[in-house]
Design brief:
The protein is mainly alpha-helical. It contains seven helices and five strands; from the N terminus they run ββαββααααβαα. 56% of the residues lie in helices and 10% in strands. Helix 1 runs antiparallel to helix 6, helix 3 packs across helix 4 and helix 4 runs antiparallel to helix 6. Its main location: membrane. It is found in: Cell inner membrane. It comes from Pseudomonas urmiensis.
């Protein structure tokens, strides 16, 4: 059974801005509809993904060691890290909030670091192991990235409720800034990775990762 031609065989490229299928036969390589530059592959995908992920890892350490908020209740104030905040919410019976913060702050970044490292290493080694599953893994990383700021929203909501009820105050601390940077850089890492490299042979992969089309 004859398969239909692929986009590369037809010399077509999808515009990343407006989604138009563009003919790459003509110079310069710009979208005829929105004039955005066209690329057959994300340029320097592996290098940029490694750089963003390592930056996120560097910020992940202070994000977990530094306090993310200061809680003052009835005159008593205390700084809380992410993990101590999870334990405090759990001990006070707010297990749902504790679970949300733990998943969004500890589990999700950890899963993204492991998944992106696996994708990067297997692509660089030219592995043909579980290509379909690795493509699904990348889509999963993209999906959970949308929920990475959930715990920051929970902290903001709790702070608003505490101050509204005049029971005390909750103020942000430097840890929340570092955690925000972790979220931003992990999202940039996921956006920089080109999942099409999973399906390419090593020789083609090395060429398309460094050349801008």
């Amino acid at each position: 059974m004859k398969r239909p031609p692929t986009a590369s065989e037809l010399n077509l490229c999808l515009c990343h801005s407006c989604g138009l299928a563009c003919d790459m036969s003509n110079e310069p390589h710009h979208c005829p509809r929105c004039d955005a530059p066209l690329h057959r592959r994300k340029t320097n995908s592996l290098a940029r993904t490694w750089a963003y992920m390592l930056a996120a890892l560097a910020f992940y350490v202070p994000a977990n060691l530094l306090p993310v908020m200061n809680t003052t209740l009835l005159g008593d104030g205390a700084d809380s890290t992410i993990m101590s905040g999870v334990l405090e919410f759990w001990e006070h019976g707010a297990w749902d909030i504790a679970l949300i913060i733990f998943i969004a702050s500890i589990a999700v970044p950890g899963v993204k670091f492991v998944a992106l490292s696996l994708l990067l290493i297997t692509v660089q080694r030219g592995s043909d192991w579980a290509r379909k599953e690795r493509s699904k893994l990348y889509r999963f990383v993209e999906l959970i990235g949308y929920w990475s700021m959930l715990d920051v929203l929970v902290v903001a909501l709790v702070a608003a409720l505490v101050q509204f009820q005049a029971l005390g105050t909750i103020e942000p601390r430097p840890g929340i800034l570092f955690f925000g940077l972790v979220v931003v850089f992990t999202m940039l890492a996921a956006m920089s990775f080109d999942p099409r490299l999973i399906w390419e042979p090593p020789a083609t992969k090395e060429r398309t990762d460094v050349v801008t089309h």
